[in-house]
Design a protein that fits this description.
By secondary structure, the chain is α/β, with parallel strands linked by helices. It contains 17 helices and 14 strands. It has helices spanning 20-30, 79-94, 96-103, 118-127, 146-151, 159-174, 186-191, 208-212, 219-230, 248-257, 274-283, 300-304, 327-334, 349-353, 364-376, 379-396, 399-410, and strands at 2-6, 34-40, 57-61, 64-69, 107-112, 135-140, 177-180, 199-201, 234-239, 263-268, 289-292, 309-313, 339-342, 356-358. The chain has an 8-stranded mixed β-sheet, sandwiched between helices. It has a 6-stranded parallel β-sheet with strand order 11-10-9-12-13-14, with helices on both faces. A hairpin with a 2-residue loop joins β3 and β4 (64-69).
């Protein structure tokens, strides 16, 4: 089967997020399929963007053919980023005939944060395959335009929101199947044109090989963590983005409540709020908090090995009513460490497996109590709790399992 995966922000372990297209495509290649990924040459999610001099420039990564479209650079979420979205969709249409002729797709997957790419993907699918048998699958990562309205505060009648709403409605009413990373979104999607039997839930997951052969931690991280371990501290770990949505200020408030105990908090990552968080910790005299630079995704197993428990939190967002599918959730569970889970969602792999103490988001007192509760558990109790999370991941959420599930959707 020839599979075309369209994702503006697609990356790889070397380039950085977004990881899902790479892991899915690699598994399909291993199963004997030909997979092409079309992506933009620049993404704010990547740590390393490819050097691209022309549209449809080809790069082979682990058996996957990546084709890059020149979309322009941008900073933040302003007009320049919006322009890059329109450029990406325009260039997909511009190169439509060449894509159909050379890649000969049997399945076209439109997979982006924003839904506008569903239109060019559907046009490509309409001309692909043998005698027009190419199928279009739309994959939903984020709930746009709801995210813009409910989180970003944009008016429902803003032209950009209306444009995204058109794209979402088009995707749900025209795609042969919709694959959602959010497990509770079917009702909303059906109200916007999707037939219920076309909905499939396939979340993110982990690559077992990365956990069998993890990358080494940088020397700075290793030295700092070994010193903390030697001091006998109970280590609460966090890894990932330092943005407002991650609610790390709440974690620091919880740290202030427990400052007199043998508990230390390690925050590894980067983001727009990191400088603010570091200033706050200094002003509050929180010597029990250490900030570290981000680590490569492949070094996450080595990082989490030092932690006694892992914190995951976020703002109390109404969008979580559709479910959550953060990459760090699966990595945290795979680490086989108990979690403090400060998110408000109807259900999740974390709550299903019983590997966490669940608290309400943005409640520092509850987070502080959860830390103390875990610290007072025996090591055996914590290990059993963490093992439940890893067992759940290995059973249901590895990319070989998820890729097979996705293939079954393609072949329906």
């Amino acid at each position: 089967m020839n599979i075309l995966y369209i994702d503006h922000y697609a990356g790889s372990p070397e380039m950085g997020m977004e990881f899902r297209p790479y892991y899915m495509a690699r598994e399909w290649v291993r199963l004997g399929h030909r997979v092409s990924v079309i992506a933009g040459n620049y993404s704010h999610l990547r740590t390393k963007n490819p050097p691209v001099s022309r549209d449809m420039q080809r790069q082979r990564i682990d058996g996957i053919d990546y084709y890059w479209l020149k979309t322009g650079t941008y900073e933040g979420n302003g007009p320049a980023r919006a322009l890059s979205m329109f450029r990406f969709c325009y260039r997909l249409l511009k190169w439509k005939d060449r894509i159909i002729r050379h890649l000969k797709p049997d399945v076209v997957i439109s997979s982006s944060t924003y839904p506008l790419d569903a239109y060019p993907a559907h046009c490509i699918a309409a001309g692909g395959g043998v005698n027009g048998t190419c199928r279009h699958i739309h994959e939903v990562h984020d709930m746009w335009p709801l995210t813009l309205v409910e989180i970003g505060g944009m008016p429902k009648l803003h032209p950009f929101v209306l444009c995204m709403q058109w794209g979402e409605n088009y995707a749900y009413s025209h795609a042969d199947r919709v694959v959602s990373l959010a497990g509770h979104a079917a009702g909303y999607m059906c109200r916007h044109g999707l037939k219920k039997n076309r909905f499939h839930y396939i979340p993110n997951g982990i690559d077992p090989q990365e956990w069998e052969n993890p990358a080494q931690l940088p020397g700075q991280h290793r030295q700092t963590l070994e010193q903390l371990r030697a001091s006998g501290k109970f280590l609460v770990g966090y890894f990932g983005g330092h943005a407002k949505s991650n609610c790390l200020d709440t974690l620091l408030e919880a740290a202030a409540q427990n400052r007199d105990l043998d508990i230390h908090y390690v925050l590894a990552g980067s983001g727009t709020q990191k400088a603010h968080l570091m200033r706050y910790a200094k002003e509050q005299g929180l010597s029990c908090v250490t900030f570290l630079p981000p680590v490569d995704k492949r070094a996450v197993p080595a990082l989490t090995e030092y932690f006694d428990c892992i914190y995951m939190g976020s703002k109390d967002s109404p969008l979580y009513r559709f479910g959550i599918c953060m990459n760090k959730m699966f990595d945290s569970m795979m680490a086989a460490k108990p979690l403090i889970f400060a998110l408000n969602a109807p259900s999740s792999p974390v709550t299903d497996s019983g590997c966490a103490i669940v608290v309400r988001p943005q409640r520092p007192r509850e987070i502080g109590r959860a830390v103390r509760k875990l610290k007072n558990m025996s090591e055996k109790q914590r290990n059993e709790m963490g093992k439940r999370g890893r067992d759940e991941i290995l059973c249901r959420y590895t990319y070989p399992v998820l890729a097979e599930k996705f293939l079954a959707v393609m072949e329906e």
